[in-house]
Amino acid sequence: MGQSEVNFYQQQVVELLKQVIEPNLKKDIVSLGMVRNLRIVDDYVYLRLYIGSHQQQLKLEVESKLSSLSWCKKVYIQICTIPGVKITLGISSGKGGVGKSTTAVNIAAALSLQGAKVGLLDADVYGPNLPQMLGLGQADIEVIHTPTGDKFLPLEVQGIKLMSVGLMAEKNRPLAWRGPVLHKIITQFINDVEWGELDYLLIDLPPGTGDAQITIIQESPICGVILVTTPQQVAIADVRRNIYMFRQVGVPVLGIVENMSYLICGDCGSHTYIFGSGGGEQLATELQAPLLGQIPIDQRICSGGDTGNPIATSEQASPAGEVFRQIAIALHTTFSTIDQLNQL
Ligand SMILES: Nc1ncnc2c1ncn2[C@@H]1O[C@H](COP(=O)(O)OP(=O)(O)OP(=O)(O)O)[C@@H](O)[C@H]1O
């Protein structure tokens, strides 16, 4: 088969795959980034399907669609899923320090409050701080033997299952993993954790667009990313670079969370936009992705992070607590988990 023929056949395959629609998200599996590593070798089609544990029927649909290809002898589909996990989401930011981990922890807490089974994977290899934000010190990770090999057992804290690269590092020692070692550790993290049944797995990604972030996105069935930004333009320029990377790997951006949006006056309740305003909104319009929430600057968010009490749980009625609750509801609506959960 010549290259032009391969290209033609590949185009045919992509067109058919675009007819397979994920029923909850109501979008085709190609634009959802679920199909990767598509290759055509002689009369065979090879592809990887990145799906959640509840989406196995998509494999059958792909097989059925591609059965109409007269030239194709067989379709080989490799299912890439995290066992037991339905929806895997990435939490990302263009640069460090904008409150990505804070957002990840609080969204996890808000989802959990509403009855969802939630896991948090702290994959921020450059600054893994989720254990502390949930009130955990250094803890030993248990390894269990399963029929599919040895697995790490996540810790469970405040109803959230947690696994962190930070738990594997020595205290006060920066993680200096690079290249193949980093790649191996990250893939182990994605594939070798025994999560049990989860509605949501949130992955706290390293900031920026480095190797670690790209590896995680490519190797995991992330079905969308939530971008955290602050209102300043500089942060927003970084977010744009980030978005470009997600588009290249084909992972959709589900929405934007603007953090440190405003300060609420303790006396009169007025809002002061310390870092300017409108950045998140502008980005959301440009991306045609929803602005999921604007989180105020609140000292309780900071102290809650230091003491392991996420504001989404400890101060549910606060403005920030309410924003996180709304974000959780928006996610339930997007993924149609709403009917399975009863506390809304
Ligand atoms: N809305 C907020 N109000 C007050 N403090 C906040 C807010 N959001 C985050 N912070 C504080 O800002 C600091 C940085 O937040 P966080 O660690 O979540 O950022 P990050 O983007 O994950 O950073 P890194 O990339 O370095 O891990 C923390 O001390 C956190 O408590």
What this model shows, in words?
The protein is an alpha/beta fold and about 350 residues long. The protein has 2 domains: about 5-80, GMP Synthetase, Chain A, domain 3; about 85-340, P-loop containing nucleotide triphosphate hydrolases (Rossmann fold, 3-Layer(aba) Sandwich). About 35% of the residues lie in helices and about 25% in strands. The protein has 11 helices and 17 strands. The strands form 5 sheets. An 8-stranded mixed beta sheet has the order 10-11-7-12-6-13-14-17, sandwiched between helices. Helix 3 (about 100-115) crosses helix 11 (about 320-335) and helix 5 (about 180-190) runs parallel beside helix 6 (about 210-220). It is globular, with a radius of gyration of 21 Å. It starts with a helix and ends in a 9-residue tail after the last helix. About 40% of the residues are buried. The site of adenosine-5'-triphosphate (ATP) has 20 residues, from helix 3 and helix 9.
Give the helix/strand layout.
Layout: H1 3-17, E1 21-22, E2 27-28, E3 35-41, E4 44-50, H2 57-66, E5 74-80, E6 85-93, H3 100-113, E7 118-122, H4 130-133, E8 142-146, E9 149-153, E10 155-157, E11 160-164, H5 179-191, E12 198-204, H6 211-219, E13 222-229, H7 233-249, E14 253-258, E15 263-264, E16 271-272, H8 279-287, E17 291-294, H9 299-307, H10 311-314, H11 319-335
Helix pairs in contact: 3-11, 5-6
